[in-house]
Amino acid sequence: MKRLALMLLALFALAGGHVLAGAPARPYDAAADARADLRAAFAEARHDHKPVLIFFGANWCPDCRALATALSTGRNAALIRQHFNVVKVDVGNFDRNLDITAHYDDPIRTGIPAAVIVAPDGRLLYATQAGELANARTMSDTGVYRFFEQRLRALKTAR
After folding, report:
1. For residue 148, how many other CB atoms are within 10 A of its CB?
2. How many CB atoms lie within 10 A of CB 108?
C-alpha cells in the first residue's frame, strides 16, 4: 500500500501537479488537423472581429502544459475568451506543423510554448521571439495574465 501511494505521488509530481488543476492533461492534440483548425478560427475571427491567438507547443513540454493550465480557469480564461479565437498547434518533437510555424516567423526557434497573434485578415500582429513563455512553469497566474494584458494593450496602441 505504501509503495502504491509513493508511486501515485511520483506520478503526480511528474505531471507537475496539473492533474487536479482542471486543465486537460494533454492540451495539444497530435491528431488534430491544424490547418483546418486555423481555417475555422480565421472564419470565426472575420465574423467576430477578434484576432486569432495561436499557441505552438507539445504535450511532452511541462511549460506548455503549465501555460494551458494557467489559461484554463479564472480571469486568464476570461481574458483569452473575451479577446481571442484560440488555436493550439502541436509541434511534436519540433517535427510537426513546422510549415505553420515558419509562416508566422518561426516563434518556436527559441522554445515552446510559443504564441502568435494574427489579425482576422491574416496579418501577423505579434509573435514570441525570445522564449517569452518558455518559463511558463515559473510564471504565476498573475504573470500570465499580465503578459497577455500587455499584448492586448500594445495591439490597441498600434491601431
Report:
1. 20
2. 24
Q: What is the pLDDT of residue 22?
A: 52
Paired sense of beta strands 52-57 and 114-118, if any: antiparallel
Per DSSP, what are the bridge partners of residue 117?
Answer: 53, 126
- Strand stretches in the chain, DSSP E: 52-57, 85-90, 114-118, 124-127
CATH code for residues 30-158: 3.40.30.10
Q: Report how far residue 99's alpha carbon sits from residue 67's, in angstroms, rounded to the nearest whole number.
A: 23
Mean pLDDT by 10 residues, the chain (159 residues): 41 39 78 98 97 98 96 96 98 98 96 97 96 94 96 90
- What span, in angstroms and rounded, lies between the C-alpha atoms of 119 and 45? 8
pLDDT in tens, 23-49: 678 999 999 999 999 999 999 999 999
